[in-house]
């Protein structure tokens, strides 16, 4: 019996010893081997870590006017353990925040310390919730991006997402500077989520983002947007784009595109897609919105047409293969490698003309000959030297490079076509940057959209200095080009941009659109690039009208008045005083007359009416020779414009059948 008892005692003792050893091993594993992991889990249970958002930097124009700022907002969190009547609280939050009740009920019932309810809640809504005194709600200061002028400069500014992160425009390209660094509010709590008395609470202050000062001038941007909006309506175009640049620094003073979008509501469904939006896939919806956000001024490419003759002229003069007084002969067409390439006025050839007159007349055979004299190697050296075929490195997303043929695939016909702006594609920002170099003593400047970054106290953190890329042509050639391009406005096809008292230079362009390798009948791009004052350029202005839907599609008719409007307003704003020539002074002394409406009239009747109103005229034929009974297709200036007696009205007549 004693042996039995002793055996049982030894068995129990052995069992307890083994169990004790297992407990020791387990405790060793928990406290030593996995100690860090369990300590972390314990800290997570005891600690409440609430993020404190940073304030996004303000975006200013060059003169300190706010273009994008941050309006006060809140993030709302809930501590489920403190919510007593979860059903009522979910119902209340649903009514105030316009959210799904079931989703809210799930959040206020979660087995977690803290749950996010909603971000970017405005002050008025938070005030309503505070008044309801709901236990368990936490309100954290936040901010919501706000654009005071809605769709103003939308393609420059861009927009942010729900988390205040830049998605497009300068909001995206300068994201790391604007966003700042969020802070943290860390404190110790008990099992019920209440702060432990005497615990070590840590608050890390958020670091606000830097403020961004742009090169954009708000006033000039308004001038550009007003002119572009009017042009969009008058021409019934698909799109109108305008860029204003300081040619000496590369500063973009304005960039306006219509139609545009509201930066405060960039995800608004386009009107034309509302009916089928719900049936579209998420990818299709995103692609549709992306088309709205895409910046045509830097992303869209097109054949520049006659505006590119500026580049051909500069290259020819620089290489000495042509001089301003050299004479050419236009017979209406040129035979190149067995192909006949026509002048736009082949039905009524320009005949004998100087190089300057060839530029004024935009005569294709003149530029074909200049390119032939240059040869493709030299010509392409200048095409690439002026930046075509490469991005300009403007600090905006989605810049295209344009298309420039590989020089090995350029034959005589391709060289000839390139000379007058066909067979090559450019972006608006490339073209204005290149032409600015032509008139800026040959210096190609990198387009600049941002001037500096400053902190909240106004201290400069970083300066974005103007950057010279290279000198493409000499100062002498540049001076000659300024005079030639001035004559295009004073005597040639660009008279629609003429402003008394100011020397304006420029070049018109009308190009047929190409799609899938073929030119599309009835689809055109009309453009004009101008600069002023021609003797000391302070601004360059490019206007591109994509697919005008009205009666006219000529750059000299519909694009020149837009550029004229922007230049006139901007020079006066910049306090550039007009300097009238003797002839202009005499014109100012003359009486004013109202331009009559002559569109749809017969040519012979229009001439008579203009004469009766003490106005001169110049006939610009584009497609064929008109007759006395031909109808007037378009005119510039337009009807009802007030002009000086003796002013010239440019008329476009329907060619004879």
Short characterization:
The protein has 657 residues and is α+β, with helices and mostly antiparallel strands. It has 20 helices and 26 strands.
Average pLDDT number? 88
Shape: elongated
Largest sheet: 7 strands, mixed
The CATH topology assignment of the domain at 50-214 is Penicillin-binding protein 2a (Domain 2)
**C-alpha Rg (nearest Å):** 35 Å
What share of the residues does DSSP label as strand, in percent? 15-25%
**Alpha plus pi helix count:** 20
Give the helix/strand class. Answer: alpha+beta
Question: Percent range for helical residues?
Answer: 25-40%
CATH superfamily of the domain at 50-214: Penicillin-binding protein 2a (Domain 2)
CATH domain class of the domain at 50-214: Alpha Beta
What is the count of β-strands?
A: 26
Distance between the termini: 135 Å
CATH architecture assignment name of the domain at 50-214: Alpha-Beta Complex
Q: pLDDT under 50 segments (min length 5)?
A: none
Family: Belongs to the transpeptidase family.
Domain PASTA: 591-655
Protein name: Stage V sporulation protein D
Subcellular location: Membrane
């Amino acid at each position: 019996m004693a042996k039995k008892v002793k055996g049982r005692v030894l068995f129990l003792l052995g069992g307890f010893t083994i169990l004790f050893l297992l407990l020791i091993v387990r405790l060793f594993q928990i406290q030593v081997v996995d100690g860090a992991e369990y300590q972390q889990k314990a800290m997570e249970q005891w600690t409440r870590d609430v993020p404190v958002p940073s304030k996004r930097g303000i975006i200013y124009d060059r003169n300190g006017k706010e273009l994008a700022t941050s309006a006060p907002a809140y993030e709302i969190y809930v501590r489920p353990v403190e919510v007593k009547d979860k059903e009522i609280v979910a119902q209340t939050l649903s009514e105030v925040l316009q959210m799904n009740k079931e989703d809210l009920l799930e959040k206020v019932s979660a087995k977690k310390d803290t749950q996010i309810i909603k971000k970017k809640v405005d002050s008025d809504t938070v005030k309503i919730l505070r008044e309801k005194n709901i236990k368990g709600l936490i309100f954290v200061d936040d901010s919501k991006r706000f654009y005071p002028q809605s769709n103003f400069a939308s393609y420059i500014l861009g927009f942010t997402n729900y988390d205040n992160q830049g998605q497009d425009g300068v909001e995206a390209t300068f994201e790391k500077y604007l966003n700042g660094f969020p802070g943290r509010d860390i404190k110790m709590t008990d099992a019920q989520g209440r702060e432990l008395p005497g615990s070590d609470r840590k608050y890390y202050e958020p670091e606000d983002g830097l403020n961004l000062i742009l090169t954009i001038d708000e006033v000039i941007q308004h001038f550009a947007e007003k002119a572009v909006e009017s042009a969009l309506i008058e021409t019934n175009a698909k799109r109108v784009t305008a860029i204003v640049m300081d040619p000496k620094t590369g500063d973009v003073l304005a960039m306006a595109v219509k139609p545009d979008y509201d930066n405060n509501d960039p995800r608004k469904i386009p009107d034309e897609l509302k009916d089928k939006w719900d049936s579209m896939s998420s990818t299709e919806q995103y692609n549709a919105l992306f088309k709205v956000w895409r910046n045509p001024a830097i992303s869209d490419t097109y054949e520049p047409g006659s505006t590119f003759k500026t580049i051909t002229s500069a290259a020819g003069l620089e290489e000495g293969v042509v001089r301003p007084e050299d004479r050419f002969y236009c017979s209406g067409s040129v035979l190149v490698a067995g192909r006949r390439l026509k002048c736009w006025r082949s039905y009524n050839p320009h005949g004998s003309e100087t190089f300057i007159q060839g530029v004024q007349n935009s005569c294709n055979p003149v530029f074909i000959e200049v390119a032939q004299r240059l040869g493709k190697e030299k010509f392409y050296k200048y095409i690439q030297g002026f930046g075509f075929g490469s991005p300009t490195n403007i600090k905006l997303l989605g810049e295209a490079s344009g298309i420039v043929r590989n020089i090995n695939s350029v034959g005589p016909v391709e060289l000839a076509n390139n000379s007058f702006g066909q067979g090559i594609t450019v972006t608006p920002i490339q073209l204005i940057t290149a032409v600015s170099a032509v008139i800026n003593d040959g210096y190609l400047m990198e387009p600049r959209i941002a001037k500096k970054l400053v902190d909240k106290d106004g201290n400069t953190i970083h300066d974005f200095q103007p950057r010279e890329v290279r000198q493409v042509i000499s100062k002498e050639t540049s001076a000659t080009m300024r005079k030639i391009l001035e004559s295009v406005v004073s005597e040639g096809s660009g008279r629609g941009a003429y402003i008394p008292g100011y020397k304006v230079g420029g070049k018109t362009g009308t190009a047929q659109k190409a799609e899938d390798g073929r030119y599309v009948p009835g689809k055109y791009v009309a453009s004009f690039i101008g600069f002023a004052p021609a003797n000391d350029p302070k601004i360059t202005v490019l206007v591109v009208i994509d697919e005008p839907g009205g009666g006219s599609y000529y750059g000299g008719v519909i694009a020149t008045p837009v550029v004229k409007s922007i230049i006139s307003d901007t020079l006066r704003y910049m306090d550039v005083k007009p300097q009238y020539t003797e002839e202009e002074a005499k014109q100012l002394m003359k009486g004013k007359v109202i331009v009559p409406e002559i569109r749809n009239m017969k040519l012979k009747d229009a001439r008579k009416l203009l004469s009766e109103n003490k106005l001169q005229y110049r006939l610009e034929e584009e497609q064929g020779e008109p007759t006395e009974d031909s109808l007037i297709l378009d005119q510039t200036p337009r009807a009802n414009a007030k002009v000086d007696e003796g002013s010239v009205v440019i008329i476009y007549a329907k060619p004879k059948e």
